[in-house]
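Something for you to look into today, if you have time. Could you write out one complete protein record for me, on any chain you like? Leave the record below and I will have a look.
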Amino acid sequence: MGPRGAREAAHPLSAFRPWAQRRPVDRYDALLRAAAGDEPEESIAEQDELREVLADALEALTEEEQWIFHMLTTVRLSLRFVGSVLGVPKTTLARRRDRIIQKLQEALMESPLVQERMRSYSSEVS
């Protein structure tokens, strides 16, 4: 089954925004989920924003790119198998995967929140 059949059954990105269902039910639950030193509401809002940034980056991919990304990362199929489904060699699919990852990285780095988070990680390592 190729990308078209997968889309007809269920769109692979339809589950990328489920976090609203996992929101804390009360302040105690929010405290349990917050990182040490973070205000629970701020931490939850930041996590929601980061999830939105990621979902937007994924939705900016073409449908075929979304399908390839989903099959390789979520379903965890091999390059060889996905390549055979698409009728392309494994090496061609590996190059496509690398371009997809590059597109996602570029889209994510456009977000001020992601830039800030990356700066904070690099300062922790230094």
